[in-house]
């Protein structure tokens, strides 16, 4: 049976949690994930995202076969392995600029495994760093390392489908929605005025520059704004006061804006260096069905519907999700589309589905 059996939920909901754990044959796991889960595109569109064609300057496009006439200068005197080690320690902005200098530089960087993985699977996050002027704070090695993680760094237990740009940590939509202290942001001007931080203290804080971006809530036409993690600012404030003020007291002095908080994040997939597989996070179609059937309602219903899982996490959820099991049964082991599959799950978007209904 796959995955290993887990205990039944402490407070099972009749009609939502199955009475017994579903036994998943190993050879059906992939089909179950494909049939009973879906990727919610709304989560990607609620944060920084870019339309296709934006990434042309960063994508690892193969060079046309030709002699590389532009050398790397003194770097070319070093062994290729050493050059690549140096590139790994470059920040993303420096790497981006180096790659533009010559065809030889592009050849070396395009051959770098960590860059290829990053530029192939996480171009939105790469472009978000460049666009928000925060690429100089994240090295190639740090980017790749975060790409190879899966769980939210705040709640630990859930799949982290997003990256919080100011501090470059993986987080989940749930922590962002519930206003986790580590994900709050405010303008640098406001933080400086409220906490009375010195220029030196401000210089230590990770900042992100917000520019008009394609999103569900486009920014008004106004100059760019520079924001900072209020959690980082609070830590700096505590240090300035030699620990006489707690982090909670410092945070209480600051307010943040929820829509700006979303614009400080970007979707980030997970890359498994062992299996070479990439995951983008999935939601449960069975939970959406349970919500539409009024089996789960209110905050609980919205909470479980909006949960994002890794492949492994979804399978662990599936063994107790009665409606997901129903969809699997209706699919005849993945052979046909389940008749009860919610329209939202087919579209992968609540907004798109509602728009079609209005039309």
TrEMBL record:
PROSITE patterns: FBOX
SUPFAM superfamilies the record matches: F-box domain
One Pfam family matching this protein: F-box
InterPro entries tied to this protein: F-box-like_dom_sf, F-box_dom
Sections of the chain in a coiled coil: none
Location of the F-box domain: 72-118
Name of the protein this chain belongs to: F-box domain-containing protein
Organism from which the protein derives: Westerdykella ornata
